[in-house]
Design goal:
Elements (H helix, E strand, L loop, with lengths): L4 E6 L5 H12 L3 E2 L1 H11 L3 H9 L5 H12 L8 H18 L3 E4 L3 H4 L6 E7 L3 H10 L8 H20 L11 E4 H14 L4
Parallel strand pairs: 1-3, 1-4, 2-3, 4-5
Helix pairs in contact: 1-9, 2-5, 4-8
């Protein structure tokens, strides 16, 4: 099966964003990550910083997740919390981008938004080496050595909580993905090579 959409969830420090951008460069297929936030910001006149703050407020509570999903499924957007509005808006933007053709999506529960679409390959990029991950965070992300571990944990927790709050699935459960790549073993180019194959 030829893939039409690649959705990528990734550990902080795994280089997943670089993989996605390089894949887009090689294939000419657009990549959407920050662009999803910018699309929501433009459409709903809300700052990207505020959207990110709402994402950070998501909890990994099962009851909260059921509550949010029930409200979102009810079809009455007025019943949603601020966080719920952001999630629904992001899902809408993702589907709008997908309507334009093949695409690569970074985070934001894109696989959930595209669950009724054909040709979706769900990818998780991890970094099995803590030292490789730490050095990437320091050198490429400009984070101080003293803060690298705490920043990594903060971002991974945010991603995990947001994913669970809106899907009731565990972000780190590798059974949720079709492809799992280790950037410490394959490198950025190797991960990109692997993801190019289903797009050809």
């Amino acid at each position: 099966m030829k893939a039409k959409f690649i959705t990528i969830e990734r550990e902080y420090g795994s280089g997943g964003t670089k993989v996605a951008r390089l894949l887009a460069e090689r294939t000419g297929i657009p990549c959407y990550g920050q662009e999803i936030l910018e699309g929501v910001s433009k459409k709903y006149d809300i700052s990207v910083d505020r959207i990110q703050a709402y994402e950070e407020s998501a909890t990994n509570s099962f009851l909260y997740s059921i509550y949010m999903m029930t409200r979102a499924a009810s079809g009455s957007s007025d019943m949603l919390s601020a966080e719920g509005h952001i999630y629904v808006a992001e899902q809408d933007i993702i589907r709008r981008f997908a309507a334009d053709g093949s695409a690569i999506f970074l985070g934001h529960c894109a696989a959930e938004a595209l669950k009724d679409h054909k040709g979706v390959v769900k990818v998780f990029i991890r970094c099995g080496s803590d030292e490789v991950k730490r050095q990437r965070i320091i050198k490429e992300y400009g984070i101080s050595a003293d803060s690298a571990d705490s920043v990594r944990k903060k971002f991974d927790k945010k991603r995990s909580n947001y994913y669970y709050a809106n899907t009731t699935k565990k972000w780190e459960d590798l059974r949720n993905y079709d492809v799992v790549l280790d950037s410490a073993v394959l490198g950025i180019d190797g991960c990109t090579d692997m993801l190019e194959r289903p797009l050809k």
